[in-house]
Amino acid sequence: MEWNVPNVDKEEIELFSGKYGTDPLTSRLLLARNILEPETLKYFLNDDIRLLHNPFLFSQMDLCTDRLLNALEEGEKVLVFGDRDVDGITSTALMVSALRDEGLEVFWEVPMGDDHYGLQLETVEKYAARDVSLIITVDCGIGNIREVEFARSAGIDSIIIDHHNPGEYQPDATAIINPKSPGETYPFQGLSAVALVFKVLTALDMARSDFYNQVFCFLNLRPGNDSIIVEAVKLSNLVEQSRITETFVNSSSEVQLMRVIDFISDQAILVYQEDVQLKLLRQLLGPGTEVAVQDISQEVWKQFPALKGKSLLRMLQGSKLNKFSSKPVQEIDAGVQLLVSYLYAKNPGILQNMKSRLDLVSLGLIADMMPLLNENRIMVKQGMKLLSAVRRPGLRELIARLGLLNKSLSSQTISWKLTPAINATGRMGRPDLAVKLLLEEGDISSLADEIYQLNEDRKRLGNEAWEAVIPDAKESLERFDGKLALVYHPSIHRGITGILAGRLARLLQVPAFVIADLNSHYVGSVRSIRGFHVTDFLSRFSDLFDDYGGHDAAGGFHFPRDQFDTFTQRLEEAAAFIELDEKQDAALDLDLHLPPEMVTEQLEQFQASLEPRGMDFQEIRYMTSSAKIENCQVIGKDQSHLRLLLNIGKRKWPAVFWSSADRFPNDFQLQDTVQCAFTVERNYFGSNSNMQLNIIDIQRS
């Protein structure tokens, strides 16, 4: 196999490090991965939650917030309806706990056992009888047109908080918070449902501040070349609504002046350093000019003493705003950012609540394989700190059962060990256990025990089914023109269809469909690979399905038993038109070529600085030369793996080489000097741990 390692110019590394203050290895990695845009780098090199997008950038967030405020004022009864996976479970727990903290009576439901996905008519009817007047769906609802209409006819309003791809039509809800909705203006689509709940709750906190729904103008004048430049930005809920810039010289017209006056009239006008601003205004309009402005500088300096006496220009010169923008940044931009920071500082509860919720947010983002880009990076990084500190008693109990207590949790550990245990509750038909654990409803020790056992049962079922489905999956490739795999087998439990589909997709390098028989109907999962868009493809079979949904990378569906043959026949016809991206088997793409002396335990700290890693920012892949094989053992129940001891530089490294026992001693032998491609991780065993290499490939030097 050919290895590809990007060649990064030394001068590029020095320039990058000089601009962004990064160490050479970090600079080299980011350059190698072509992460170059300042706006993108902002989220890799910062973890300040004030950099998260304003929730009021959602086009219907004001409608959502006003409806929640009304529910709080009236003391309404609310139903939160979620989903059975980690994202749905954390979404449900986060929304329920927040509304209960506000004093509301809140019911919650998640699909149990073989229940269908999404809100059901009988659920609406059940809670209408309990005088519920508001239903909030989380991680579902975007397809519940009929159910939302039925709720409306029963006098119940609905708020939809969902991130799944919408269909041609959407429910007629009071508000829909979905970054993928047609016409939505929010700047980032990669949020999971629990991240959307986080946004809604942040907006609700902002609604308690004195700036909620207040429109005000930030005005800044600055001298130019024989001119005065007037800049103004109009803000509502700290979101920029519009701006104006006018340059006044001796020949400036009254039309210019009227444009400025019209823009700033009928609202509060905020300025920074009033004396400077009024002096420039009087130069422009005449010495007797009086303009009512509110100077924020004194209040800003109380909150941020280090800024006392500094001009906006001086702040701008050393600011992150300037460093992480590819466009010219003006003084007015620094002023707006200063104003936003000041208002957050004046209302500290907003940021405190945001931070406290990010542990659950990070679980949902990681488990749902959301892109670890943009604001997701900050939310997950901050959330990982909370998860390692284990602030929630219920999570502490579960983390203890998993042997992870008092350990620093990496994104890899969370995705491989913690989220699968929570997910197992939904897969095994008891997602309510995980919701109760997070809400601390009941004996959390017993709940953690039950969840741990369900996870063990799920792993056993998965291992048993895996061996049974592989032959069928490989055989199905021929039927479907090598474009997809389809498996139906009596041993498949409905709770493991997604796991099996994911494993088959990775093994066979084609999209995989796995179907379980529930006697009354069939339930299936599909997982994508090589650029296959799941929900677009499933829409071709919407006339057969009772329900379906998902994302570009994963989806689910169910249909009546009598449609099985029709479905598989049409799937076979559709497979001929599937276009997949090319396989990547021919070459191994690596990130960094390290000399042996740089393969040290300091790589752990280097990797921690680049957390989180996962979807769209994968594990860092290294290579090194002159590694000597000092020991090699065949391990595993099926004797298919290798455990090695490698002498690299000044250290001997334990290493594992999965599914590669057949390569020893054919491709390499003891005492050989080899090149290694690998990742680095901390391996925990009992109360001990060590750093180890996970070998991707070995070549003789």
TrEMBL record:
MF terms (GO), sorted A to Z: 5'-3' exonuclease activity; nucleic acid binding
Protein name in UniProt: Single-stranded-DNA-specific exonuclease RecJ
Residue ranges of every copy of the RecJ OB domain listed in the record: 590-697
UniProt KW Isomerase keyword: no
Domain DDH: from-to ranges: 77-202
GO biological process: DNA recombination; DNA repair
Top-level division of the source organism's lineage: Bacteria
Record family assignment: Belongs to the RecJ family.
Record domain DHHA1: where: 483-574
Record NCBIfam families: recJ
Organism (species): Salinispira pacifica
Listed PANTHER family: SINGLE-STRANDED-DNA-SPECIFIC EXONUCLEASE RECJ
Pfam family, one: DHH
InterPro entries: DDH_dom (IPR001667), DHH_sf (IPR038763), DHHA1_dom (IPR003156), RecJ (IPR004610), RecJ_OB (IPR041122), SSDNA_exonuclease_RecJ (IPR051673)
Keyword line: Exonuclease, Hydrolase, Nuclease
